[in-house]
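Annual report, structural modelling task.

Input specification for the S-adenosylmethionine complex:
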Amino acid sequence: MKLVAKTFAGLEPVLSNELKELGATKVQQEKRAVSFEGDLNLLYKANYGLQTALRILKPIDQFKARHPQHIYKHVYNFNWSKYLKTYQTFAIDSTVHSPYFTHSKFVALKMKDAIVDQFRDKTGRRPSVDVKNPDLRLNIRINVDEVTIMLDSSGFSLHKRGYRASNRQAPINEALAAGLILTSGWQPSAPYVDFMCGSGTFLIEAACLATQTPPGFFRQNRYTFENWTDFDESLWKTVKAEAQANIKAPQNKITGFDIDPKMIQLSQQHLKITAFEKVIQLKHSALKDSKPVVKVEPETQQGTILINPPYGMRLKAKDLVTLYKSIGDTFKQNYKGYTAWVFSGNKNALKQLGLRTSKKLTFYNGAVECKFHRYDLY
Ligand SMILES: C[S@@+](CC[C@H](N)C(=O)[O-])C[C@H]1O[C@@H](n2cnc3c(N)ncnc32)[C@H](O)[C@@H]1O
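The model returned the following structure:
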């Protein structure tokens, strides 16, 4: 099977590596995606075990079109009974980069009409649309006049791991957090600190990596491939059992601090859900008073600090300068021997850290350009 895994801009190389490790072949990086080949076993493994993928798509048809009627005609003539039953619900996502088609929603509507008309003409009945929780999720992508129709095997995005008690304070996306940790090169045998941990996303993703807990382990939502006509339940059970058999005890301490007691409480709730209470230590503390639980030799750079401070949307410019200066001071005074990584959407604020950057990377969190900088704290 040809397959496509979607991800964040900047994480394509990390996702490629993850896919190669899972056994994917013909792995190729694309824009915000990686294409690859594999069998049903790999499709299930990818959904359950990839840290940095958002969804896995399976192309089922490709054709050229320059007019909505071309799409309607082609989709109407495609054999949908192979994938969809009249009693099932479906939804269509669309992405369009084309001078011939400007409204992605209109393209999705044309495709929906063609599918419904085919069923009605053949059977007198039609499947219904459910945009929230459909049995079958389809995807239409148009690049100039090249149309690709894909089945979405994941349904709810794979970043929705299932451990969040609340989404109120806009935490970092779980797949992005995992990708940043993998990019940092942190070795789970070394200590790990986030002294602005918020709801604990980095800490939990680090704990998943350290314990080899698959990202799908806490998921309550079904994957849409479970509704596919070719769903192999016993293979799916084997894939999950094999991944779970690899879960192991962590080798080192993961520690989180935050100045806001409500955030520490929320993180604690997440630790309960994930049963990571013994893996992650939490403490209510301002960053300048935070201390590494594990001291490392200054020359080794073995411990990792990874934080995403506020960007400044809600902070006054003066407060932002003070906050970033204090992050730099804390790095220098409390964390000698660690490697620090800061993820921020405010590159001017990063200059306030007053430290030499040893690596500069760029990622996109949605449309926001974000910097991911490394500082070696000798
Ligand atoms: C952008 S949020 C981090 C979000 C987090 N990565 C998550 O996924 O939920 C920044 C966090 O820094 C914390 N913070 C702000 N000033 C701080 C300080 N001086 N010391 C410690 N934490 C601070 C805030 O309470 C907030 O939880």
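DSSP finds ten helices and 15 strands in the chain.
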